[in-house]
Amino acid sequence: xxxxxxxxxxxxxxxxxxxxxxxxxxxxxxxxxxxxxxxxxxxxxxxxxxxxxxxxxxxxxxxxxxxxxxxxxxxxxxxxxxxxxxxxxxxxxxxxxxxxxxxxxxxxxxxxxxxxxxxxxxxxxxxxxxxxxxxxxxxxxxxxxxxxxxxxxxxxxxxxxxxxxxxxxxxxxxxxxxxxxxxxxxxxxxxxxxxxxxxxxxxxxxxxxxxxxxxxxxxxxxxxxxxxxxxxxxxxxxxxxxxxxxxxxxxxxxxxxxxxxxxxxxxxx
Amino acid sequence: xxxxxxxxxxxxxxxxxxxxxxxxxxxxxxxxxxxxxxxxxxxxxxxxxxxxxxxxxxxxxxxxxxxxxxxxxxxxxxxxxxxxxxxxxxxxxxxxxxxxxxxxxxxxxxxxxxxxxxxxxxxxxxxxxxxxxxxxxxxxxxxxxxxxxxxxxxxxxxxxxxxxxxxxxxxxxxxxxxxxxxxxxxxxxxxxxxxxxxxxxxxxxxxxxxxxxxxxxxxxxxxxxxxxxxxxxxxxxxxxxxxxxxxxxxxxxxxxxxxxxxxxxxxxx
DNA sequence: TAGAATACCTACTCATGAGTATGATTGAGA
DNA sequence: TCTCAATCATACTCATGAGTAGGTATTCTA
Lengths: 269, 269
Prior knowledge:
The structure is a homodimer of 269-residue chains.
Chain A: H1 52-55, H2 63-81, H3 88-95, H4 99-105, H5 109-132, H6 138-153, H7 158-163, H8 171-198, H9 206-218, H10 220-223, H11 232-245, H12 255-258
Helix pairs in contact in A: 2-3, 2-5, 5-6, 5-8, 6-8, 6-9, 6-11, 8-9
Chain A binds a DNA duplex (30 and 30 nucleotides) through residues 1-3, 5, 10-16, 19-20, 22, 53, 58-60, 63, 66, 87-89, 97-101, 103-104, 108-109.
């Protein structure tokens, strides 16, 4: 005799139904998508497919697939509710399993965040590798990296990648993540320096410029959840255009000086 | 007979000494600075002065000063450890008082974050007001706002302002904060539109451009704690320069096309 | 100098959530 | 069919931390 797998409403088992005023005012938003390989497929809203557990009853198979499903579920939950407002019970419930099952695939919550972080970061690192041997001026290579970067940040792992904070992690993990983030930062700075040298990028402070570019792109993770009117790729493209051109017009005769001075009076808006 | 005010080591009272692996690996970093008016005085590392409680025993006075000290202590703690990793006991301990004392000045933790948020935001709103009647092209007015913006983000309230997330707050508070943030966003967009119209800003998508600018500046809050080699004002200035000019060189004969193609071979780095 | 506020503390309650002990079920291979 | 390992559930433990009850001390006011 076993309990059967009917979801919910066991004595208290799956727990955490009917909390208090608890956060999480984002709507449900589909369950898991188990099949495709983990390192993100960006685009807009991921197709809400099913939990591998629900889909197939075969055990002993799909270990890796299930593990990835756990990570992906975590990423979505973090994305919606933040790291601290997501409990492992939440994640388990999303997958229609229980918390120990989640712990069967990952050792702890911190690891879960870390895996999400890696999943988000990987395509960016790949972009650096891809771009390394291209016969292009540095600015073009930088742009290519930034495009991948922006797309990654807009992916379902974007939040986890960008917001995986030292503040939330053990010192060891914190160092590890900082190292990886620093790699990216240094990569961007190097491309900027190369660009300044080969003349494809205007003279600038590589460090501050890298901070500005990465910051603008990182911030996508904050507003993309609310405003998905563009795909990650489209946003990245728009940003690259902005970075390239700058605010000051490029037409001759510096139009800033031509610009009409503003009336002093304050008019109704 | 009363317990006296000797700190710590009561049966368990002040609690939270000697936790587990608990986060918070940032060094101490002075206590409170009570005197100056709240809405931030940016600059570099705030002078670690003393708790008003420690400084003066006169009660019934300085209520507002103490309240501000609580808020400022909270801002610093959030800045160092994040909202969720900061307990009200931590904040109280910093001020050398107990948790109920903190609750005597603020109603709850969410309010505390909200007050920090407001304190961070205020100088930005002030900047918009200041700039409103200046007889300058829109780009110059935008730059002025961005300078204040960057300085505010680098202030001790920067983290709270930038990271006050809907995810951590009640729906009502979340809406309130979103409204205020949206005001700023719309203000930037408007300046951009005006700039495009008066010719001081190159034609662009105001929405995406505003996102890029604000994102770059917001992100300062993430790295400024670790790297205070420049003041907030210096960073803001550097960013404005970057935004204005863009990556593409402005010298005649578009040097991008002149730029040497990169050798295909991969050389050791 | 007796209330009345004000300001602050001790000592709780209580819910949450990370993580675990232990056992049941199932499929694969001997 | 028997065993073993993989997989997953029930039902816990335990620490944390938000928030409170109720009291004490201090200063102001009448």
